[in-house]
Amino acid sequence: MSTISLHRYQHVSNTWDEMYISDNHLREQYHKIIGYLEQESASDLNKKEELAKRLFMSQGITFTVYDSGEGIEKIFPFDIIPRIITGTEWSFIEKGIKQRLKALNLFLKDVYHNQFIIKDQVIPASLIYSCPHFLREMHQLNVPYDIYIHIAGIDLIRDYDGTFYVLEDNLRTPSGVSYMLENREITKRLFPDLLPQCKVRSVTEYPAILYKNLLALSPRAVANPTIVLLSPGLYNSAYYEHTTLARLMGVELVEGRDLVVRDQRVYMKTTTGLQQVDVIYKRVDDEFIDPLVFNPKSILGVAGLMSAYRKGNVAIINAIGNGVADDKAVYSYVPDMIRYYLNEEPLLKNVPTYSLGNPEHKEYVFQNMHKMVIKKTNGSGGYGMLMGHAASEADIENYKIEILKDPRNFIAQPTISLSTAPCYMDGMLQPRRVDLRPYALVGPDGISIVPGGLTRVALKEGSLVVNSSQGGGSKDTWVLAS
Amino acid sequence: MLSRVASSLYWLSRYVERSDGILRMLKINYASSQDTIQEFTWTPVIQISSGGGEAETSVVKNDSRSVVEYLLFNRDNPNSIINMITLARENARSVQEHIAKDLWQCLNEYYHTVKDPKLLWYVQKDDPVTALDILIKQVMLYYGTAGSLMERGEIRSFMSIGKYLERSIQSIDILDIKFISISNNPDLLTDTSYWQHLLLSLGGYELYLKSYRKGFEAENVLELVMLNNDFPRSAKYAVNNIQRYFERLKSDKNIDHYNQLSFNIGRLNSTITYSSVKSMKAEGLHNYLVKIRSELYGIGNLLNEYYFANA
């Protein structure tokens, strides 16, 4: 029997490792699980890996790649070694996220109403008005309890000294929470008894909290408001997540074609006629939500939905128009928002960000392309990024041409090395880069963040891109009590 | 319930039922193809289960293995098991939050089983019955899971209506094709194995033996498959169940539509109840079966229009 070797772990220099302080010297939160792993043989761990794959496959937790006519079903790669966060780290993250969300929510209210933040010259008007996700249709539209951000998936990363940075605020339709839930279910089966022994906090409350919040938002005072989850449908890559959430909350999963608007009220078509809808948990992008107002070619949305929303006859989660707050160029002003609205110093740091619309910044960035990560301000999924440290001269020159076409659309950030966490690969533990996406829920009673989140892993050696569309995987994320 | 959801539940159920019928028929016919000195003709089986004309029949010639392969795995055959289960699963996927999680997993595993290369290998190189048994087991798992876990409400009603509508159409198709073969070849009328196989593929062999002691006669077979209410694959039993599950959908909100459809189902049920083998023969069996089938299609169309919002 060959046990897995913990001695061959190749530390990446100048990088924070989630488990190792130095070779053979573990952070305390990992002692128990490593103790457990050391008693297992490599073949036991391989069996666990197989079991994980089989569980994902048989439950249909897959995404489909359509490239050869017939869809090929794949599972999101899952690494069996959990990522562990201490109670102290978590309470800091929790405070930081709550602070940030309070400010961002006030910003959205402000930017769609009085615009004090622009009048006080904290954020330039040009930046807001040039943002494609700043929706004039939202101007002076009042949302229930002034809550715009109901669900946020803020991406955190750690630099070489372990400091947490916010990489992105996902305030529109953050996805992946079903993987947080499923990963935990799988871990329960992979490592029996280990979760209670390690005092890992539970994440199962998530759907119940979300449901309670949705219920509270109903504009009609009725005993049983109709709550629906609006999905783009079967062929959306997050469809599995939509069904999981609908099932866990017991709400109706609908597509645009199931809904119809009459007299500025939203109805769903049922076997017994039309039934009024009170709350929509929207998983369709804003620009497709109403063909009469936004993209006229969209068949995913509902004609007239905006009129019902404006009238206050239906609540929509997240609010429409949140994109202006998670625009990557607006992102660099979030610390200023926190100071402006809350009169507090930001707890969680921003990654320094250069906006290429600014000529001085552009000059600096162009001279230091190799040290930068350059992104589109409205991009997501890790597409259209330039990783300066790995790009060829030709790539960089081409990218510069792209940037010059519309500099406002690009930002640059110095390459942050991202912390590493051990992954079980080829019979041994190997360091891979990770980030962390906790899920925050905002309701009339305040902000709750389920202790956990999605840890995404860049599975390729040396890669810094954790997006699932770019070969990323995930890990279960443990938050320890106290 | 959402109209789209009702429609998906109904179709998912029809596809599974159809796959079940095809698999059972295939198994019996494959067995009989191994047990004959004459050349076994697959044409009726292909006609019943793929709805195909001459073109299909000639594609697979008369080689048993290729027929089984065609009916199980051919993507161009709309009623191949693989197409059927893909559709059932897609429908189930789009209503996952309405059906028991285990039921979804069942269909998902059924799908992955059909796609398993091992299965094709059984058909091509080893014993095809093993492959058929594996698949039949998947269907049985599905029915067991559905029976023990599905909530008894609107969801189950739509699923049951789909199942029994599909089943009655299948039984009538099988009867029609088998009796047409007789009119072309009267010798079959006295061919015991011909009736045996018909009954076996409908799962009615044992019940037949218990009910009729005088050996195999066309009229008795007809009576069993059309009129015997104790036979789960008879037209009578299926239509009774369509009626029973449809009655549960009654609601004040759409009473006009309900009444209309209820009338049609009731009329069909009476037509079958007040038929006898004698009256069927007087009317002409083929005409009679065509009439019943078109009534069944009509019920499907009204469901589509009134309940699935596809008007």
Task: Tell me what the structure shows.
- The complex is a heterodimer of chains A (482) and B (311).
- Chain A has helices at 31-38, 42-58, 87-111, 116-119, 125-129, 177-190, 194-198, 206-216, 239-249, 305-310, 328-331, 334-342, 359-367, 393-405; strands spanning 20-22, 25-26, 62-68, 70-75, 78-85, 151-158, 164-170, 227-230, 252-254, 259-262, 265-270, 273-276, 279-282, 315-317, 349-350, 354-355, 372-376, 386-387, 410-414, 420-425, 428-434, 439-443, 446-449, 455-458, 472-479.
- Chain A has 482 residues and is α+β, with helices and mostly antiparallel strands.
- In chain A, the strands form 7 sheets. In chain A, strands 5-25-24-21-20 form a 5-stranded mixed beta sheet. In chain A, strands 15-7-6-22-23 form a 5-stranded mixed beta sheet, with helices on both faces.
- In chain A, 43% of the residues are buried.
- Chain B is mostly helical.
- Helices cover 75% and strands 0% of the residues of chain B.
- Chain B starts with a helix and ends in a 5-residue tail after the last helix.
- At the A-B interface, helix 9, strand 9 and strand 11 of A face helix 1 and helix 6 of B.
Task: Summarize it.
Chain A is α+β, with helices and mostly antiparallel strands and 482 residues long. Helix content of chain A is 29%, strand content 25%.
- Strand count of chain B: 0
Question: What is the tally of helical segments of chain B?
Answer: 16
Task: Name the helix and strand elements of chain B from N-terminus to C-terminus, one letter apiece.
Answer: HHHHHHHHHHHHHHHH
Radius of gyration of chain B: 20 Å
Described by the principal axes of the CA atoms, the overall outline of chain A is: globular
